[in-house]
Amino acid sequence: MTKSVLLDLTQCIGCGACTVACKLWNQLEFADGAPATGEKAVKDHSNWTTVTFRKVQKDGAPVWRFVKEQCLHCLEPACVSVCFAKALQISKEGAVVYRPDLCVGCRYCMLGCPFSVPKYEWQRSLPNVSKCQMCAGKIAQGEVPACVGACPTGAMTFGERDDNLALARQRIEQGNGRYINHIYGEKEAGGTRWLYLSDVDFSKLGMVTNVPEVPIASFTDDYLRWTVPLLAGGALLFTALRHYTKRRNDIESSQASQKESKKK
Amino acid sequence: MSMAANAYTLQIRDWSFRITPLRIMLFALTLGFGLLAVYRLIVGLGATTNMNDRWAWAYWLILDYVFIALAGAGYSMALMSHVLHVQDVHRVSRRGLLISLLFYVYALVILGLEVGRWDNWYRPLFYWGYHSPLFEVYIAIIFYFGIQLIEFSEVATEKVFKPANRYVQMLLPAAFVLGAIIPFGHQGALGAIFLAMPNKLHPLWYSSMIPWFYVLTSFYAGLSLLILEMFWSNRLYASGIDMPALHKLLRVGACLMAAYFVWKIIDLYRLDALGYAFAGGFESALFLLELGGGVLLPALIGFSRWGKTGTGLVTFAALATMGLILNRANVLYTGFYRTLGPGYTPSWIEWGVSIGLFAAIILAYLFIVENFNIFKAAKH
User: Fold this and answer.
1) Per-residue pLDDT tens for A28-37?
2) Do the Cβ atoms of B57 and A107 come within 8 Å?
3) Which 3-state string (H, E, C) describes B222-250?
4) With contact defined as beta carbons under 8 Å apart, do B57 and A107 qualify?
5) What is the pTM of this model?
6) Cβ of B132 and A108 within 8 Å?
7) Which residues of A touch B128 (CB under 8 A)?
8) ∠ CA A58-A62-A63, rounded to 5°
9) Which residue segment(s) compose the domain that A159 sits in?
10) B108-124 pLDDT per residue, tens
């Protein structure tokens, strides 16, 4: 079972209730100069979810769209595979959660995440990585994430990923062209647990669209699978070469000294 | 420097260290490093560096990449001198091992300041994130650092704890074989770290081949730095230029550089990315400078007759070293600029830490070569 949220961007009115609910539940700071909603919403360590207001062209006229963003909770997350300390893990329900007690603070997750989701507590002397946990504690109790529960328009549907995918396809089919034919998160980075529906192209909404359709881990695993056999083979080869070259040099030098003595 | 008129020598039993005005300055820089490092550990990264959520890897990480790569002499010497027993090379082997050891110390200290949760540094020993290339880097470098200490303890026990030398000798054969093979693992894995960033790193540098490129470039960069070190130490100590040994290093280095150049071009062609090299813009310019000035040109010098002269060798080695530095900086900065955007230059503390620690490394080098047998040929 893997939990998922289907977010229908056409139903978002940009009220920002989700961002407030997120901060209250996760005890995140409200900071001046770092709004979680608006045209200049800032994604940082205390804004795990943001709603960015975007004026985009649709059918030749400008329209406002409100883009709620947070960790997409990949099926095979890059952050989990690149973390060398297992500080990022997948919970039983499918939330990608962070364990600060294991984190060394290398920040590979921040660079490795194809969506650049994880942020850092730069102002602390022992800083942690910071990102949406999909309210792992709540969903383990059978509740919905704080943001989903706070949404007044029901733009988000919490449920099994397969059910949400089916629902998304149904909406596209029955929408008579209302939606673009792209479920964001169905294939991105091998599939994510958050799924998006939209009526304008996702690239216009500032979302990352150049993401490979295979999990990021597949790129590193293709290399890493060879390292142990290569290193073990190399160690054996070098041991053999060490003895061979030493013996060859010894023989050469003894032959050379024999020649020398014959000359004399 | 060695000729400084007002120099005097600090002497305690059989330990000696010349004090010159320049060395006093290096001590001051080292002290400055110490203060800045403590300050950084107390107040954190945000107050001392210009790193931010976009540029989460920056100048200090470039330094780590550069110093680990330039430390390539450690494993190239273990391989060429102690595994392949290449003639002449064994005479410069100790120099390579020393540069490598000091450069790893530099990289590890910077890394300790660069990571946020240095207090958790041992956690991956118990929680194996083996899907991460960084885990391979971590394990291999810890292991290899131990190997380097064994390799250096052969030198050390010629002067202190002399009875231990015969036990060190027993460990050396295994240490040299492991010291030759393990760095292939982490040098490659340092490149493999970027495999996880296919949609972020510029196509001029992103390639499935990047781990192999990192091994190859670190191998010849280590040799180049060793050539520079020999000319530098000769100026300081008149320790002599071992031309037969340097010609071996030159030939191996030039061949590897030529191989890298051809492989890189073929790889760009394979990935249909050759066009980016001539697309204009600062990425193209820096890439051409890196591959032309830092790889092709020194390779050509290495194959020429002039390359075998003193000036030729220094030019070859300096260009190759600069090429390596430019490559690592290009991957981590130029290659990410398109994705991460403007907004990062190192803070004065980031510069100060890097310069002060380098001063400390130079002092350590001077002390070791003045008190241990580094320059004379090893017995192996």
Assistant:
1) 999 989 999 9
2) yes
3) HHHHHHHHHHHHHHHHCCCCCHHHHHHHH
4) yes
5) 0.94
6) yes
7) 86
8) 80
9) 3-215
10) 999 999 999 999 999 99
